[in-house]
Design a protein that fits this description.
Layout lengths: L35 E9 L3 E10 L2 H4 L2 E10 L7 H21 L7 E5 L1 H9 L3 H15 L6 E3 L2 H12 L8 E6 L4 E5 L9 E5 L3 H12 L5 H27 L7 E5 L1 H10 L8 E4 L1 H13 L6 H6 L8 H14 L2 H16 L9 E5 L2 H17 L1
Parallel strand pairs: 1-4, 4-5, 6-9, 9-11
Antiparallel strand pairs: 1-2, 2-3, 6-7, 7-8, 10-11
Length: 385
């Protein structure tokens, strides 16, 4: 299978008509292309706020020329729906917006701001929809842009955009993409050989919500062994009540050769399982690999530190410093509980496609968070034309 490219060639047709923006000499980041547009996407997700900044080259439509200039997040646990977390989310939203404008000099019209479907679903579940309205209004007031669009993304639209922005055109119609977020899991595929009809896959569970449910059952006992016990219960219940039904209802099994996972936990598992493939955007894994990984997170968590992982890399030709930095970034984003919860959810979904008679190919997409930005940019530009 051809690796998923870091390009979104189909998505960028209209972008090419927009002219090209070059950052000023004061900008310290080194651009890759002579002529380029720079766009930013800021997403308020269940876990916090994420910023992605892309440099899109002049020949992106033909060559897939784009580079990630910035990819960062601030963990604020917005879906706890508590006032301190609301304030932290608003501060993070505002702070990353200023990073895009001031540090990277992206014009405000090229900064796209959205609230993820996972936040929307959790707010609806807990009757907290007014928290989203308050956040949007407060952000507009803070940035002094009363007409700024902050869209609350629909789950089907988000899943469809992710597929268009992540999956290579050559594998468009035989790939089932599943994005595991903090608050929900969504994805799907195009069953009829066109990009209009999209079959949605969704469950109202993500890395953070699985971890929160297990921690809630722990009560006052915060020991790892207790968390592991209840995590197993929550994951099994989720599999039996939600995952099996959602996978069967999707009809994806006979139609999809490749099962691709994106989202923070996919990036984390890929990085910790295969640090020697740090430079690759997509990593192939097996069910047994991920199963062993889940067990080891509990029994020998320290073995996934940058020190031990880098020490065991046999191929010394790779950039070990870059790989170590990426491993440390994983641990800065996810603690042990979150890694255990997210990888267990990943494994439960993989299990539905693991068959003795027919082997599916599992892929972990590490830069999936960038996909929605380019696809969303294209959609907005088309809507405005």
């Amino acid at each position: 299978m051809k690796h998923f490219q870091q390009s979104t060639a189909l998505m960028l047709t209209c972008i090419m008509l927009m002219g090209f923006h070059v950052l000023s000499a004061q900008q310290q980041v080194k651009l890759k292309y002579k002529n380029s547009n720079v766009y930013a996407g800021i997403e308020v997700g269940s876990k916090g706020v994420k910023l992605s900044i892309l440099e899109i080259g002049k020949d992106a439509k033909k060559t897939g020329a784009f580079a990630i200039l910035k990819d960062t997040s601030i963990n604020t646990d917005f879906i706890s729906f508590r006032h301190p977390n609301f304030d932290a989310t608003l501060d993070g939203f505002y702070g990353l917006y200023n990073v895009a404008l001031k540090d990277y000099q992206v014009p405000s019209k090229r900064v796209f701001t959205v609230i993820s479907s996972g936040v929307k679903m959790q707010a609806e579940k807990e009757n907290k929809k007014e928290w989203l309205t308050n956040l949007i209004d407060s952000f507009k007031l803070r940035v002094k842009e009363p007409k700024r669009k902050v869209e609350i993304v629909d789950v089907k639209d988000e899943a469809r955009l992710s597929h268009l922005g992540i999956v290579d055109d050559n594998e468009r119609y035989n790939t089932f993409l599943i994005d595991i977020g903090s608050g929900n899991t969504k994805g799907g595929y195009f069953p009829y050989g066109n990009t209009t009809d999209f079959k949605l896959f969704t469950i109202n569970w993500g890395t953070k919500t699985i971890a929160n449910a297990a921690e809630k059952r722990c009560g006052e006992d915060k020991s790892l062994i207790t968390f592991y016990k209840y995590l197993g219960q929550v994951a099994l219940e989720t599999e039996n009540k939600d995952i099996i039904y959602a996978v069967n209802e999707s009809g994806a099994y006979p139609k999809s050769d490749y099962i691709a996972f994106s989202g923070g936990i996919a990036w984390s598992v890929a990085t910790l399982l295969h640090p020697e493939q740090n430079a690759k955007a997509t990593v192939h894994v097996t069910y047994d690999e991920v199963s062993a990984f889940c067990d080891k997170l509990y029994t020998d968590y320290n073995s996934y530190s940058d020190f031990f992982l880098i020490k065991n890399v046999k191929d010394k030709s790779i950039d070990l410093d870059a790989a170590a930095k990426e491993i440390r970034r994983v641990h800065a984003v996810f603690d042990q509980h979150s890694l255990m919860a997210g990888s267990r959810l990943l494994l439960k979904i993989m299990r539905q496609f693991e068959s003795v008679n027919e082997k599916k190919e599992f892929l972990l997409v590490k830069n999936g968070q960038v996909g929605w930005v380019s696809a969303y940019v294209d959609q907005v530009i088309n809507d405005n034309n």
